[in-house]
Amino acid sequence: MGRKKKKGSGSAASRLVVTFDEERRREYLTGFHKRKVERRKVALEEIKRKLKEEQRKMKEERHKEYLKMLREREEALDEFDELEHLVTSRTESVNIDHPNHIVTVTTISDLDLSGARQLGLTTSEGKSDGSEEEKGEEVVNKPATAMPKKSRNPFLSEKISSLTATLHMHSRKKKKGKRPQRGQGPFKKIQKPTMRRTTKTQRRRLTGKMGRDQD
């Protein structure tokens, strides 16, 4: 005789019940797109933050360069004023007439260059007065450099331009992705009237009606 199967009391409890949830299914299917949009949004925010940071660094660097150039210009003006005070006499202006032109020679003398913060005396005293005059003219005629308009650091400019290009590329992709769905938008599909073929009897009836109308 075969063995009798024992009816287990826990057979009903071990059964698995599967229920279909439409809301969870929709959330699972659309979750990939949502996460992709979220990652793109985070990347755009990061690019904007980096762009603002680079612009702030460039402004600070430009401000520092401006202050440095302003300080150098003030020092050059102070040296020019001190040299103006050292010139005690500007005499001996001689006009020499030539057949085709007139030459005027002006001698600037009595320059005291041994004061504090001046050019100073060198050990070799064999230099002529002409060399001292050339030094004085070089200091006086020192051109004032223009203020910097752009940053001298090309790395920051290249980084800002690359971040801006990436931001524009993301914005263009976002605009291209928004396409109007079917049945939406300003344009509607216009249905063209379809031409149907008529039978011979229908054409005769139409011609007969037209003839009676003309009579």
UniProtKB/TrEMBL annotation:
Superkingdom of this protein's organism: Eukaryota
GO cellular component, as recorded: nucleolus
PANTHER family per the UniProt record, alphabetical: NUCLEOLAR PROTEIN 12
Keywords assigned: Coiled coil, Nucleus, RNA-binding, rRNA-binding
Signal peptide start and end residues: none
High-level lineage: Eukaryota, Metazoa, Chordata, Craniata, Vertebrata
Coiled coil start-end: 34-86
Region (Disordered): 119-215
Biased composition (Basic residues): 169-181, 189-207
Sample GO molecular function, one term: rRNA binding
Main location: nucleus
Subcellular location: Nucleus, Nucleolus
Organism (species): Phasianus colchicus
Family from the record: Belongs to the RRP17 family.
InterPro entries: Nucleolar_protein_12
Protein name in the entry: Nucleolar protein 12
